Amino acid sequence: MLYLNDRPLTAKAASLLVQYQKAVDDKPTFSEKTSEGKKLFARYNKKSNDAFKVVRGNLAEMSGGTIRCNYCEDSNANQVEHIYPKNFYPEKCFVWENYCYACGPCNQPKSDKFAIFEDATGNELNLKTIPKDTAPPKGKALLVDPRADEPLEYLFLDTQSTFRFVPFIEDANDYRRAEYTIEILGLNSRNHLVRARKVAFGNFKARLFEYVAKKESGATAAQLNPLIDSLKSEHHQTVWHEMIRQRSLHPELDDLFNRAPEALEWAAFSNQ
Length: 272
Ligand SMILES: [Zn+2]
Description:
The chain is mainly alpha-helical. It has helices spanning 11-25, 30-44, 50-61, 104-110, 151-154, 172-184, 191-216, 221-233, 237-245, 251-259, and strands at 79-82, 99-102, 115-118, 124-126, 139-141, 155-157, 165-167. The protein has two domains: 11-184, no CATH class; 191-265. It is 45% helix and 9% strand. The longest helix has 26 residues, at 191-216. It is globular, with a radius of gyration of 20 Å. 33% of the residues are buried.
């Protein structure tokens, strides 16, 4: 999971979202707000809608060359996902910064699972346990938010053996956030994702090796650029970011980066 650099909406799309959100906010009670939000989101979240055409286009651009899911980075992203679920946060139903692009296998199981550290007590609160049709108390989300947080400050991918994510932050609450994110998104529990990250590691390394060999034999930029583009379009870009961050743990990789230090700048979509 990588940080998603914002691509601002067009003025027209932004103003349509404000208008849709106002219709939700104008409802008097929490339960009316959530049901209005659900109804309007189902109505407007269509490719033919002027706002969502732009929302989807921007999210696609923010999701790398092959439009991978922002959570698993494995499947095609095709669902506008509310990071803060609209059933608990109707006030974020049409808020651009609350959207990311996800695949069905990530979106459905995540659904309304959401926990916060409650401001009043500091305790973790699973929002599924609060009475139905009640607004959640104020608090900080546990889920690492790829629009607001830098996921790699929380998560570390073990590229030496398991290809599983581990929490990577000292503060106890942040550690819990990392743990919760891995669990709720099934980042380690889906074996095919773990295997795919290992495969991606090999693919990235092979591509970098090919680049270095060609460069050293005098290839032109026109011959090298397609290799760079293809590397930036690979699935599982977090693996590539981790290869850069963890290069000192992999001597062969470190050697390739020393021979092509420009490769350290090839971050597919977080540094655009
Ligand atoms: Zn996914």
